[in-house]
Amino acid sequence: MSELKPMSDQTPASPERRRFVGGAAAAAGLAIAPGVMLHQVAHGRPEEQAASSAVRWGMLVDATKCAAGCDDCVTACSTENGWTPVAESKHPKQAPQWIRKLELQDPLTQVETNLPMLCQHCAEPPCVDVCPTGASFKRADGIVLVNRHTCIGCRYCMMACPYKARSLVHEPLNDTQKPDVPRGIGCVESCTLCVQKIDRGDGNTACAEACTAAGHNALLFGDMNDPESEISKRLRELPTKQVRADLNLNLGVRYHGI
Amino acid sequence: MASITFREVEGSSLKYWLLFGGLGLFVLFGALAWNTMHHYGHVVTGMDNQIVWGLPHVFAVFLIVAASGALNVASIASVFNKPMYKPLAPLSAILSLALMLGGLLVLVLDLGRSDRLIVAMTHFNFKSMFTWNVFLYSGFFGLVGIYLWTMLDRTVKSYSKAAGTAAFIWRLILTTGTGSLFGFLIARELYGTAMLAPMFIIMSFAYGLAIYLMVLAAAYAWTGRTLGDAVMMRLKGLLVVFVAAVLYFVVVHHMTNLYFAKFHGVEAFILRDGGIFTTLFWVGQIVIGCVAPLVILLSGLGKQRTWIMVACGLVIAGGMAQMYVTIIGAQAYPLDMFPGLIENSSFYDGVVNSYTPSMPELFLGLGGVAIALLVTTFAIKVLRLLPASLDDATVAKLEH
Predict the structure, then answer these.
(1) In CATH, which superfamily holds the domain spanning B6-398?
(2) Looking at the predicted structure, is the pLDDT value of residue B1 above 80?
């Protein structure tokens, strides 16, 4: 029976060692905790965890850096989300466009401005207000989405959107569909701020990644609620505008240089 | 008060079945049109991401608005106690139900996912005017149905006034809801005004009555029953008031907009530069829909029944033109995201959007009209909705 004596009897007591292990664990815990929290933000969230209103995803568009003739953001969006580029569509007027390049010209000064136009992810989205079934909805983290399963294709949201951000899928979809981007004929769709990438923890949208890769850096995506985020810092530095600010919709996309 | 004998239409003649068959054919065409749109998607229509509501909405909203207006004759009888209108009430109720059915069918069959109608019936967002309309439409069927029952069944006749009043109030709210479908839209300049609700109500009075008059005259002419001038002249007078009121609302709406610089662009588009929309506004909505009928009805021509029918036809045609301008014209004018700047994009920003309706859209819309008339045609055969005679002597007795 002597072999089965408790460990404490065999091992000499060592208070220093215990304190050391405890202290190290606490220090490690303290060191890891913010990391774990950051990890949750940066590396997505578990499926069972709801989106948090502590975060408000948004985008800053610096129109002064947006290059004329460049549509890398549009191509990247189409590739990431699986919608056919309008140039390849047989029905360009009916083809969905989640993001588009807009060229603006002042008739007086001839000054030209380039910018991408996409769903503005309003805090007070008119599309959500008018949707009869609640298929149009705003997630807690500010992303405005369409539930593919309850959209009946009434297009009332398209009538209500001041930014023409939404498209109806007019024809059967080809096999360019992506497994994590549900789409379907007869339903309305629009920019999701690459919600699949955000939830995966990529921390950026396809359009912003493409703009950075092209060296323009006109698009900056991030959490507008976090004062330390890059987007919040830039929003504090640069004068920005909301498109149709008169409507007071509190947009998630802000423009500099318009 | 003299009693009136209501009698079913025999409906066994070749003419009746030809009418029935003809309407049925258009219902069939409508079904085929829906099937095409459902199978291939909205790509087979003239609608796109710029003009998102097209010809089917023009038909649907017109029919729904006219439906509530068609109930007017019944309302005058029961709510406002005008005995002369009492014999006209059952047809008024059935016609309003039939038009509502036709309009709603067009509306729901034009959905991108018309197979998901059950979703619209089970998922509600009460901030949406569309959701409110789902309840308003359902309630309309219920209340007008009960009202019709109180008119047809002597055992519940005492509830007729209560049911009629409820239906009357409901139809006012319903058309407020229909007008507010557009009134509650912030994005487009021609919408976003409370003006649309009362304007739609007065339009419903005019369109509904014009349809009612034509159906009434056709039913009596084709069945060989007597329809006296007393009824026709009274209803004609009512139509004059309604059409004039429509004109008044349209003028006030556009005059108000013209006072605001921000609306100058869209007003210039509708009133002067909009091509087909300008033509439809001036020629269709104003001249054909309002001025010409008023001239006919107020002049000596208005004493002849044929000309009254012409005036009714013009009011209906003008009403369709009005819906086209209101629904499609407002979408054709580009959204003004950057006021004062010229916009250019692959998504047709900053340009006037063109729209050419396709055959499926036209036949879906006509299918809705056909189903409304088919239901009415069938209802007067199986129910005692029409007085055996509406000659002047019979009608005169009612008022004493």
Answers:
(1) Formate dehydrogenase/DMSO reductase domain (1.20.1630.10)
(2) no
